[in-house]
């Protein structure tokens, strides 16, 4: 039985966003001569500008609410700015699949910590079970990755990529949580996302003169840059913001565990990355995690379950 319409539509919106985001690593692999810092700055910066321009009415309506939460707005904006720099650098050092897996897989854990420790929200049994399947799926995906010796001659670059992936996961969790807090205080999803992305754009775009070598040096590089800014960033975050209007940030980031699976499929089919059989088992576990979030489980007598998940 599916969840009630508003929650289900929110989950579907997050799934669509995850699929769009899952294409970014493969798209970035077509521009090896472009710095990951430039890729992240342009994609998130221009995406932020587009979100702002299409949300001007909502921003005007929610101006007092947004400015009434300056710490939340600044924290979210800084997290948005840091996330793409860490995320694309992680993929550059550890490969498309592993960089995506670590970045996205760690986000639900960080998000639930924020919701539990700061927002004082409870953790549902369903969330814990979903996270168990999703976490095991991510572990199996990681174990299934064949690390290329040319990329990782000593292991150092690979582990630096993992460290940056964890930073990406933390910042992704932070701005997802911040957006949800602003929505709960009465701001629309459009204004919440646009305000944080506008602040991030102010930080990111001025860095392009220093990091943007080759960003527009070929038709391929231009096409990838525009695709990343318009499709995964702009449209993807419109869907993500809509989803956050209806479901908790911890549930949203849990659903986005679909993104590494999508990224892995693209990495195998297009980039040519190799995976062992255990990696496919990881995808199955991630699919179970996803199904647990979009299907309503029957109530069990004698067990108290919170409504957080």
The largest β sheet comes out as: none
Q: How many β-strands, per DSSP? A: 0
The average pLDDT score comes to 83
* Topology pattern, helix = H, strand = E: HHHHHHHHHHHHHHH
Weakly predicted, low-confidence segments:
149-154, 299-309
Describe this structure in words.
The protein has 309 residues and is mainly α. The protein has helices spanning 5-21, 24-28, 36-53, 56-61, 63-67, 70-94, 96-117, 125-143, 156-184, 189-204, 208-211, 219-246, 249-255, 258-271, 277-294. Helix 1 (5-21) runs antiparallel to helix 12. It is globular.
Helix and strand topology:
Elements: H1 5-21, H2 24-28, H3 36-53, H4 56-61, H5 63-67, H6 70-94, H7 96-117, H8 125-143, H9 156-184, H10 189-204, H11 208-211, H12 219-246, H13 249-255, H14 258-271, H15 277-294
Helix pairs in contact: 1-12, 1-14, 3-6, 3-10, 3-12, 6-7, 6-9, 6-10, 7-8, 7-9, 7-13, 7-14, 8-15, 9-10, 9-13, 10-12
Relevant terms:
309 residues; mainly alpha; 15 helices; globular; disordered C terminus
């Amino acid at each position: 039985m599916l969840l009630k319409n508003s929650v289900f539509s929110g989950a579907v919106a997050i799934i669509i966003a995850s699929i769009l985001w899952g294409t970014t690593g493969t798209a970035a692999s077509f521009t090896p001569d472009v710095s990951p810092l430039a890729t992240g700055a342009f994609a998130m910066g221009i995406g932020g500008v587009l979100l702002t321009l299409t949300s001007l009415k909502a921003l005007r309506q929610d101006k007092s609410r947004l400015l009434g939460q300056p710490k939340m707005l600044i924290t979210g904006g800084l997290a948005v700015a840091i996330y793409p720099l860490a995320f694309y650098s992680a993929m550059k050092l550890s490969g498309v699949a592993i960089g995506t897996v670590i970045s996205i897989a760690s986000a639900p854990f960080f998000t639930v910590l924020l919701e539990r420790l700061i927002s004082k929200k409870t953790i549902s049994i369903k969330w814990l079970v979903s996270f168990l399947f999703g976490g095991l799926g991510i572990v199996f995906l990681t174990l299934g990755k064949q690390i290329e010796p040319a990329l990782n001659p000593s292991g150092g670059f690979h582990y630096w990529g993992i460290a940056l992936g964890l930073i990406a996961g933390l910042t992704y969790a932070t701005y997802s949580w911040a957006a949800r807090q602003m929505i709960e205080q009465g701001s629309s999803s459009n204004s919440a996302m646009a305000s944080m992305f506008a602040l991030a754009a102010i930080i990111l775009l001025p860095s392009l003169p220093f990091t943007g070598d080759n960003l527009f040096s070929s038709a391929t590089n231009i096409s990838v840059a525009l695709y990343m800014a318009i499709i995964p960033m702009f449209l993807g975050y419109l869907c993500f913001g809509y989803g956050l209007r209806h479901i908790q940030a911890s549930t949203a980031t849990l659903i986005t565990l679909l993104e590494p699976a999508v990224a892995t499929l693209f990495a195998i089919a297009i980039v040519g990355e190799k995976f062992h059989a255990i990696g496919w088992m990881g995808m199955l576990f991630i699919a179970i995690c996803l199904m647990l979030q979009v299907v309503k489980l029957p109530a069990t007598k004698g067990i108290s379950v919170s409504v957080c998940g």
